[in-house]
Design a protein that fits this description.
The protein is an alpha+beta fold and 250 residues long. Helix content is 21%, strand content 26%. The protein is built from 5 helices and 12 strands. Strands 7, 8, 9, 10, 11 and 12 form a 6-stranded antiparallel β-sheet that branches. A 4-stranded mixed β-sheet has the order 1-2-4-5. Strands 3-6 form a two-stranded parallel sheet. α3 (57-63) packs antiparallel against α5. The longest helix is centred in the middle third of the chain and has 25 residues, at 100-124. The two termini are 41 Å apart. The model has no long low-confidence stretch (mean pLDDT 93).
Length: 250
């Protein structure tokens, strides 16, 4: 919680604004400030409210295997997180190959349009509500922050789990990573790989170096095709740095 805005209540009130919008505001706003705006304060939230409240909702949704990402414009309630009536909502269909980069590009396109649409709806009908958010705790899913270390790959996990982590940790974030010859290796692009090979292997083993420059790596339940890495100031095809199937990622 912060009282930074409360310290400027008189300035805000003198501006005579009927409505305010919040985007990526890092603190909780008090009801005293919200009440200065006759039509309230609208917030853009990248989660399918009331599920996916809180932080890093898009990354958690990818990791959780969701099939769509929600984007909501909602009226804020002082002292609460991502609560309040929903004024507008849209969805982006996602799949196993969708990166968080794509989701953010969609947000950048949609959020200004949805703010404008919401303001117009409230200007026409101040009591307009698309959906009253459920107050039932079982309907909510609280997401907590992620840190860069959460992007470390555990090759014992399934190839699907690892791919979701790679996509959820993608740009603008620091990337999912592992280690190769004791140096950090970031994986920026990967995909599931299937073949009919019957094999015995430790996880992280490089199983093949493909003609397109990618490498195939063995995970806990199958294989993953790695298309782009960042390693030792190099960004590009893995075969530039990894040239033998006698190598492993750890």
């Amino acid at each position: 919680y912060t009282n930074r805005l409360d310290e400027h209540k008189e300035e805000i009130k003198s501006a005579g604004c009927e409505i305010a919008v919040s985007l990526n505001y890092s603190s909780i706003i008090s009801q005293n400030v919200i009440d200065l705006f006759p039509l309230g304060v609208l917030n853009a939230h990248g989660g399918d409210l009331p599920r996916y409240r809180g932080n890093a909702c898009q990354a958690w949704a990818i990791i959780n295997g969701e099939e769509k990402i929600g984007l909501c414009i909602h009226s804020m309630i002082g002292g609460e997180v991502d609560s309040g009536n929903i004024i507008d909502r849209e969805y982006l269909d996602i799949d196993i190959n969708t990166k968080i980069t794509t989701i953010y590009k969609w947000f950048n396109q949609k959020i200004p349009q949805m703010f404008l649409s919401s303001v117009q709806k409230l200007e026409k009908e101040p009591s307009y509500v698309l959906e009253v958010q459920s107050k039932n705790p079982t309907d909510a899913l609280r997401c907590y922050p992620r840190i860069p270390e959460d992007g470390k790959i555990n090759w014992n996990k399934s190839n699907i789990e690892i791919l979701r982590l790679i996509n959820a940790s993608n740009k603008p974030y620091g990337g999912a990573y592992c280690f190769y010859e004791d140096k950090k290796l970031i994986i920026w692009d990967a995909e599931l790989f299937e073949d009919d090979e019957i094999y015995l292997s430790e996880v992280g083993q490089v199983a093949n170096i493909e003609k397109d420059g990618s490498i195939v790596v063995i995970s806990g339940n199958g294989k993953l095709k790695i298309n782009e890495i960042e390693y030792d100031d190099f960004i590009g095809s893995p075969n530039v740095k990894i040239k033998s199937i006698r190598k492993r990622l750890s």
